[in-house]
Design brief:
Strand content: 5-15%
Helix content: 40-55%
Number of strands: 5
Structural class: alpha+beta
Oligomer: single chain
Shape: globular
Number of helices: 9
Order of helices and strands: HHHEEEEHHHHEHH
Radius of gyration: 19 Å
Strand order of the largest sheet: 1-2-3-4-5
């Protein structure tokens, strides 16, 4: 039996987008519960697949309720469903992410808004040497699934303490270290979508393992865990 995202999930999310009120949500609560169970089955299948290839500590399926306390957008519900998978142990850093959204689905791998200590360590590594990350990025499998290392936010200038003319300044300026692959609705509903997700995650492993090695050693290559 193939593992698929049901078309009804996208139908529900589209309807929610057009009727993003507590009243509509309450009137259609049973429909929501049915689609939530459906998408969580898919997310759990991804977890099972990842655990065959990597050491995963936990899966976190995010709630549909938006935090609107500090947002100008007061619509109460997310119009997408998402789930993250955290790697286990101190030695394995980074995470995988799946987001299903009509017309805007994607998967992501890596490090979103790393803490200041991790961010500095990564930047120091790229300041010393980028040969390993360049090799990973240029690998055909990486290029096939992610097309490069172009996503996430960057500073407009060099971080404090770094040379703005450094050869690797584009890497050093980055604030996030994420791989991203986007999908249209037709791709998401394809019987092959699950296999593409898993193949993409597998292709990201050299990147995750390299970054984990960086974040668990000092600039002399000595373990800090």
């Amino acid at each position: 039996m193939s593992i698929k995202v049901a078309p009804s999930v996208l139908t529900y999310l589209n309807q929610l987008k057009n009727n993003n009120t507590r009243e509509w949500f309450a009137e259609n609560k049973t429909w929501f519960e049915e689609e939530e169970a459906t998408i969580k089955t898919f997310f759990t299948s991804v977890l099972d697949g990842l655990r065959k290839e990597d050491n995963i500590e936990k899966m976190k399926a995010y709630r549909i309720y938006r935090d609107i306390r500090f947002s100008k957008d007061k619509t109460p519900y997310k119009t997408y469903r998402s789930c993250s998978y955290l790697r286990a142990t101190e030695a394995l850093r980074g995470s995988y992410h799946v987001e299903i959204s009509p017309g805007a689905s994607f998967i992501a791998v890596g490090f979103w808004q790393p803490n200041k200590e991790d961010l500095l360590r990564i930047r120091r590594e790229f300041e010393l040497d980028s040969s390993e990350i360049d090799k990973i990025i240029s690998h055909p499998d990486f290029q096939t699934y992610f097309g490069g290392f172009h996503h996430g936010n960057s500073l407009k200038t060099a971080p404090k303490g770094f040379d703005k003319a450094h050869t690797n300044i584009k890497l050093i300026r980055k604030k996030d270290f994420m791989l991203l692959k986007k999908f249209g609705d037709k791709e998401v509903l394809s019987p092959n979508f699950y296999n593409i997700v898993m193949s993409s995650f597998k292709a990201s492993r050299p990147f995750l393992d390299y970054m984990s090695d960086v974040l668990t050693t000092n600039t002399n290559g000595e373990s800090i865990i």
